């Protein structure tokens, strides 16, 4: 499996993703929120880049059938139904509704990768499902870590390393890109104490300071939600739904 890894989304160009199988990772917290919303019955999650885009989509929908979610500076946006804490995307909130999601890095990264052949959202919660999908559809993959404010985010890099470890079956190929080697090696260094390594991540510490520490316990679990958020027609839906239509 050939793999390219972008350690932040900001350097990704359209040429980097066009016609490729692309996995966007934002562990804290956008992709964990998307995976949870779809797990809890949301019809679709629409990732948007800003308030204007979110407002425009919302204005065309019946108010009963959507939830506006997202954050700026980690906090719920004024007037939105939900913030960006994945456990808040309960069945009660999202079942049979569309979620319009507006976040600082994660939804930007997804928007940047729109021209991919296959585009999926990944986090620790659905890592196994993502790996099975990539193996089934392609022999090369582009992994885009959202990062944080144009900087590497440790939790996204470690999640990329976990995906590569599984895709390569614990056996790194002889020829790999520097960024793929970095993610894989970092994961191997930290995998026996992954939870404590993840808690030292800058973004994790920042969320703890903001009172979102419970989100870390939730987002750092590996494989509990076998959901594949698949991008089609400007929205992420469960893969089964996309492939049936
Ligand atoms: C983002 O997209 O930047 C994140 O999900 C930020 C967060 O809510 O922690």
Explain the overall architecture.
The structure is a single chain. The two termini are 29 Å apart. Helix 6 (127-137) crosses helix 7. The chain contains twelve helices and ten strands. By secondary structure, it is an alpha/beta fold. The protein has one domain: putative 2-phosphosulfolactate phosphatase (Alpha-Beta Complex). Helix content is 40%, strand content 20%. The strands form three sheets. It has a four-stranded parallel beta sheet with strand order 1-8-2-7, sandwiched between helices. Strands 3-6-4-5 form a four-stranded mixed beta sheet, sandwiched between helices. Bound molecules: D-malate (MLT).
Helix and strand arrangement:
Elements: E1 2-6, H1 14-17, E2 21-25, H2 30-39, E3 44-48, H3 51-59, E4 66-72, E5 75-76, H4 91-94, E6 98-102, H5 106-112, E7 118-122, H6 127-137, E8 140-145, H7 154-167, H8 178-190, H9 194-199, H10 202-209, H11 213-219, E9 229-232, E10 235-238, H12 239-244
Parallel strand pairs: 1-8, 2-7, 2-8, 3-6, 4-6
Antiparallel strand pairs: 4-5, 9-10
Helix pairs in contact: 6-7, 7-8, 10-11
What descriptive keywords fit this protein?
four-stranded parallel β-sheet, 10 strands, 245 residues, putative 2-phosphosulfolactate phosphatase, binds D-malate, alpha/beta, 12 helices, four-stranded mixed β-sheet
